[in-house]
Write a structure and sequence with these properties.
Elements lengths: L1 H16 L3 H33 L13 H28 L2 H33 L7 H21 L4 H15 L2 H11 L19 H33 L4 H9 L1
Length: 255
């Protein structure tokens, strides 16, 4: 029993060691180029498969190919908001500066991908539904998500004191996470124009294999891009906040 407690404490201490600004900065520096390379390779392969190898859809023709941008952007817009809320909660509970910084670094990328999901959805909706926009449950809740991202960033920028801005924005992020399941389950809870999911964990996919491969590659690319740009932005925020700290000068000499 004592040995298991000691092991648990060691694991915990190793995990929380990355919460210190110098350790977090060094880890982010190593991960950014890896994620950036993965995003470039997977994105190139995904676009080639999606636009050159995947067959034309029998009902929607080539208009369906916008899914290779729309679907990964929509997925990541929700996942990034959950990550934003989790980092915010960690920052509130454990008072770790790296957690609050990571949350604020994720927000712009989440907002960008939410906007991309809405924009590509409108481009897809015009030939499919005959209109650019409808006040559909899925579209409306996704629009609310964009407002939540913008509200988080605006609230964070409205305080001169960094700690107060981190706390206020974190509370908004945690409260707003209730919108994510509404987005995801909206097509099941209400009668909407938006089509249901083509990929489910409990069922076989309803699309051709080349379509699925291209979509998964693009999803990996979007994931890697979001990780790379968020970590890079976190590094910039960290240096801005800690510019007078001794460790920043030490890292400067290392680089």
């Amino acid at each position: 029993m004592r040995e298991s407690k000691i092991s648990e404490n060691i694991i915990r201490s190793n995990i929380f060691s990355f919460a210190s600004p110098p350790s977090f900065f060094r880890l982010a520096t190593k991960l950014v180029p890896i994620f950036a390379a993965l995003a470039a390779v997977a994105g190139t392969a995904g676009l080639l498969v999606g636009f050159l190898l995947a067959p034309t859809d029998a009902q929607q023709g080539d208009a369906y190919r916008i899914i290779y941008l729309h679907v990964p952007a929509a997925w990541l817009s929700m996942i990034l908001y959950v990550a934003l809320a989790l980092w915010s909660a960690l920052g509130l509970i454990y008072k770790t500066r790296a957690s609050a910084i990571m949350a604020s670094a994720i927000a712009p990328t989440g907002a960008l991908l939410t906007f991309l999901a809405l924009w590509t959805g409108s481009l897809w909706g015009k030939p499919t539904w005959g209109t650019w926009w409808v006040w559909d449950a899925r579209l409306t809740s996704e629009l609310v998500l964009l407002f939540l991202y913008i509200g988080y960033m605006a609230l964070h920028a409205s305080f001169d004191d960094v700690r107060r801005s981190d706390k206020a924005a974190a509370i908004l992020a945690i409260v707003g996470v209730v919108n994510v399941p509404i987005i995801y389950f909206s097509v099941r809870w209400w009668n909407t124009l938006h089509q249901g999911a083509s990929i489910r964990l409990t069922e076989a996919p309803t699309m051709a294999t080349p379509m699925l491969v291209g979509l998964l590659l693009m999803t990996i690319s979007f994931w890697a891009y979001a990780a790379a740009i968020s970590l890079y932005r976190a590094k910039c925020i960290l240096l801005e906040r800690e510019n007078e700290a001794v460790w920043t000068k030490e890292i400067g000499r290392e680089m």
